[in-house]
Design a protein that fits this description.
heterodimer; A: 370 residues; mainly alpha; Amino acid/polyamine transporter I; two-stranded antiparallel sheet; 1% strand; globular; B: 535 residues; alpha+beta; 5-stranded antiparallel sheet; 16 helices; 45% helix
């Protein structure tokens, strides 16, 4: 299976950076659309379920050392139910991957290269992903660690360049419409934050699993901080109504950048962030699904799965949605529930059962307590 | 990727495949021993060597005893003066004290001890060894009635040029010496730099016909034993008729034969080799070529020049960052131009976009074709300039400059902007110190250009990803190719994008120097003596 080892901080950066590329663009619209002035609250709110995930995944990872979530679900629930849960998780990784590929391809073919069809981007990305995933986790981690400074740096620079357009009055009044719209609006952002569940597939391949807690928390909070900055600046620039109406507010935000009539039209930087982010995320998720499937099927290696899986992957990514609004609708309504089940409920459920049945290794150290 | 397809290949593999026979190295001369009959020995030698006129057979009689002896050497390889003085003269006139009756082992010892006034004397019984010595320039002495031959090392010091400044790796500041084609002298050049008993040379002979001497150099206790073993094992596996240049070896022992990136560093500078040895690397020197191979080699080594370590660290760091930038320019600049002018015009500031558009007006080709024409033309010019005799090369460069620079633009075949891009790319690619690495950059430019011409920025990025993934997956003798960059580590950063001052580089590089990590003492930062006294 996977022979490579990555360091805890590599794992943390992988977890932190992978949803950023996609979430940055679509999330603010969802959040502002629902919560209006209180959109900035959402990212703070969804940290709470995020903490639960961090706790559950770390605890499980330490109780079943050397096993991924797919493997210990079988240990905990027994052969048949365990394999079913494992397959659900595999499907979750796989399907989400197809969705983000579609999302990127439709962005590219809609905005950047209007005369090229989305399928070209999907197929091409798919090929590059297989090429990458074939080399295993170590190479994915090395690649991602280099993308981290690039993405965060360009992101922070963009925010910095746009500061003069911001109007913080857009952030008030506080909770004028009550808590309900905020909660409703936090569903999709929650689904993006919850992608940190991918750590459950990485923990066995980390060199010091017992030290995973702090980096994992760092990943959760760092991701939250970047999303929060993003939502807040979109809200502050466009206001509660326009910001919700535009489908990709961050793209429009970047279009406003104009420094001395020289630094302008830097949307191509967005292509860099988006394509890079999606590439990283789908690498990791495709890798996780292939690894998970190989573990469910008890294969020795993931390699024979990669090409057939990628064919299906491309087919699903291409046919699943006919257009971008359909995706937006899906991402706001059924998707958070789908994500909630796999990201939050399954790990918590597994943890509870494992604790009740007294399975796994009990750790006495302070790290194990979480 | 290769492993991915291997799982499919297994299915189609034919059950019977005959192994290629290795070249036959064992001939009967192995088993032929020197006889006690002089004439038989002479005939045997003639049957092995043929009747070449440069092989000299000289019959002598030892001392007054009249004992027959035969001296054989190769004219040109052996030092005739030395043979005349120290072998022939000694045998004929100075060997008065040998008793002809006693034809046992003691004679050989007597001759060795009392007669031959040459330092290196060996006793040989088999013809194979004997032939090896003879062909390397030694002189062989057969004595009637003895079942062994004496080989005397009186080589003329084979023909070689003087130590001169290396042409491919010029420096402003630094030693001017370069390796030459003679292995012994190259060893001496290294010994001069590293006067340590730890410096070890191990020699092996490769090439069933050429019998080329290949020397593995390392510092004992510094280089990883496993690495040394691995190098030896890979070298020992080579079965070929001849090794004429270290490039032969390189292709046999490198990790990724199909990668465009070199995974072995080549250099002709003794100081670079010495630095590599001090970092715990292993060096392979080959007789007959000034090019030494350094393993393991990582990506950054090809962007480092020896001079980086001799210049002031501030300047060296600046130059090094410049080199990284020019690496990216050399690789991506034409592609970037193609992507921007073809798909992403909106990215440019309006004034620049307008001037680009004006420059491209009337050009009949799309940017990609234009770039392709220019790049290919440039590569042809470069190659022509390299192969032509030097006086003609100048003419080529003038014609090239006129045709590419002036006429092509005037004739509206290429745009002036493209000329700028291509020349910037070319100049940037010349800043890469590792010549082999420059070649791979030149080559890789074309597929990336094609990608960005078909898919714009997206294609460019995907090309970049593929390159990065490929490089991140490469290993050179167990060391990740992008060591210190990916996987990134902090201590390594002192010598990647910058060159930290020597007093901060206390440790050797992690990947190769882990046997003996400390290289310098702590706290050697030069300080103003006035500050020290606490004023």
């Amino acid at each position: 299976m996977e022979k490579g080892k990555i360091s805890v901080w590599q794992a943390a950066i992988l977890t932190l950076i992978h949803p950023l590329g996609t979430g940055m663009f679509v999330l603010p619209a969802f959040a502002i659309n629902w919560a209006r002035e209180d959109a900035w609250l959402i990212e703070i709110l969804v940290t709470v379920p995020g903490l639960v995930i961090v706790f559950a995944v770390t605890k499980l990872g330490l109780m079943f050392p050397g096993q991924t979530i797919v493997q210990y679900s079988e240990t905990i629930l027994g052969k048949y139910l365990g394999k079913l849960v494992g397959l659900m998780i595999v499907w979750y990784f796989f399907y989400t991957g197809t969705v983000i590929i579609f999302e990127m391809a439709s962005f590219l073919s809609a905005i950047v290269m209007p005369e090229t069809r989305a399928v070209v981007f999907i197929v091409f990305t798919g090929i590059v992903i297989v090429y990458t995933v074939n080399y295993g986790l170590e190479v994915i981690a090395r690649l991602t660690v280099w993308f981290f400074p690039i993405i965060t740096f360009s992101f922070v620079v963009i925010i910095f360049l746009i500061v003069k357009e911001m109007n913080l009055d857009h952030l008030r009044p506080f909770l004028a419409n009550g808590l309900k719209p905020v909660l409703m609006g936090s569903l999709a952002p929650y689904a993006w934050r919850g992608t940190i569940i991918v750590m459950a597939m990485l923990i066995p391949y980390v060199n010091q699993p017992q030290k995973i807690m702090v980096p994992y928390l760092f990943a959760l909070l760092g991701l939250g901080l970047l999303f929060e900055l993003n939502t807040m600046s979109d809200l502050a620039v466009f206001g509660p109504f326009e910001g919700g109406r535009i489908s990709l507010p961050t793209v429009h935000l970047v279009k406003l950048v104009n420094v001395a009539d020289f630094i302008q039209h830097i949307e191509s930087v967005l292509v860099l962030i988006w394509v890079g982010g999606v590439y990283i995320m789908s690498n990791l998720w495709f890798y996780s699904s292939a690894l998970g499937l190989a573990q469910v099927l008890k294969l020795k290696t993931t390699r024979p799965l990669l090409l057939p899986m990628m064919v299906v992957y491309i087919a699903i990514a291409y046919t699943n949605y006919s257009n971008y609004p359909e995706f937006v609708d899906w991402a706001q309504r059924p998707w958070p529930l789908f994500a909630l089940l796999h990201q939050l409920l399954i790990p918590v459920f597994l943890l509870i059962i494992a604790l009740i049945r007294g399975q796994g290794v009990r750790q006495a150290g302070p790290q194990g307590k979480g | 990727m290769s492993k991915l397809f291997k799982s499919f290949k297994n299915i189609s593999r034919k059950p019977y495949r005959r192994e290629a026979q290795p070249p036959d190295q064992k001939q009967d001369k192995d088993f032929i021993l020197v006889t006690n009959n002089l004439e038989q020995n002479r005939l045997a030698l003639k049957s092995f060597l043929g009747d070449s006129p440069d092989i000299i057979f000289r019959d002598v009689r030892i001392g007054k005893s009249g004992l027959q002896a035969l001296v054989v050497y190769i004219n040109g390889l052996a030092d005739t003066d030395s043979i005349a003085d120290n072998v022939l003269k000694s045998l004929i006139s100075e060997a008065r004290n040998i008793d002809p009756v006693d034809l046992k082992q003691s004679t050989i010892d007597t001759i060795k001890e009392h007669v031959l006034t040459i330092s290196e004397v060996r006793e040989t019984e088999s013809f194979q060894k004997l032939l090896n010595y003879l062909l390397s320039g030694d002189t062989v002495i057969f004595i009637q009635g003895l079942e062994a031959a004496i080989t005397v090392s009186a080589r003329s010091g084979s023909v070689h040029r003087n130590v001169s400044e290396p042409v491919t790796e010029a420096v402003i500041r630094g030693p001017r010496e370069g390796f030459i084609e003679n292995l012994r002298l190259n060893n001496a050049l290294l010994r001069q730099r590293i006067k340590s008993p730890k410096l070890r040379f191990e020699e092996l002979t490769i090439g069933s016909i050429t019998q080329t001497e290949v020397c593995i150099a390392y510092l004992d206790g510094l280089a990883d034993k496993k690495l040394i073993g691995e190098v030896k094992e890979r070298l020992a596996r080579i079965k070929i008729d001849g090794i004429l240049e270290s490039g032969y070896l390189e292709e046999f022992i490198q990790d990724a034969p199909f990668s465009p990136f070199p995974t072995i560093q080549t250099t002709e500078r003794p100081d670079v080799v010495a630095a590599a040895l001090l970092e715990g690397r292993v060096v392979v020197l080959t007789d007959g070529t000034p090019m030494a191979l350094i393993v393991p080699a990582t990506f950054v080594q090809f962007l480092q020049s020896a001079e980086d370590y001799y210049q002031t660290f501030i300047f060296a760091s600046f130059i090094r960052m410049l080199r990284f930038i020019s690496f990216f320019i050399a690789l991506f600049m034409p592609s970037l131009y193609i992507a921007v002018t073809t798909y992403h015009q909106e990215m440019l500031p309006s004034a620049l976009a307008l001037s680009f558009a004006a420059a491209r007006q009337g050009i009949p080709f799309p940017a990609f074709v234009e770039a392709l024409i220019m790049e290919v033309a440039f590569e042809i010019l470069r190659e022509a300039g390299l192969r032509l005799p030097r006086p003609v090369g100048q003419a080529v460069s003038i014609v090239g400059a006129l045709v590419i620079g002036e006429a092509a633009v005037r004739a509206n075949i290429v745009s002036p902007a493209m000329v700028i891009i291509v020349s910037a790319t070319a100049i940037a690619s010349f800043t890469i110190p590792g010549f082999v690495f420059g070649l791979s950059v030149r080559l890789l430019r074309f597929p990336i250009m094609a990608l960005s011409a078909s898919l714009g920025f997206f294609g460019l990025m995907m090309g970049g990803f593929i390159l990065f993934v490929h490089m991140a997956s490469l290993r050179s003798f167990g060391v990740p190719y992008l060591a210190s960059i990916a996987p990134a580590n902090w201590p390594g950063q002192k010598d990647i994008f910058i060159r930290a001052p020597w007093w901060t580089m206390i440790r050797r590089p992690l990947d190769t120097g882990h046997q003996d990590p400390v290289r310098a003492g702590k706290g050697q930062k030069p300080e103003n003596p006035q500050n020290k006294s606490g004023r």
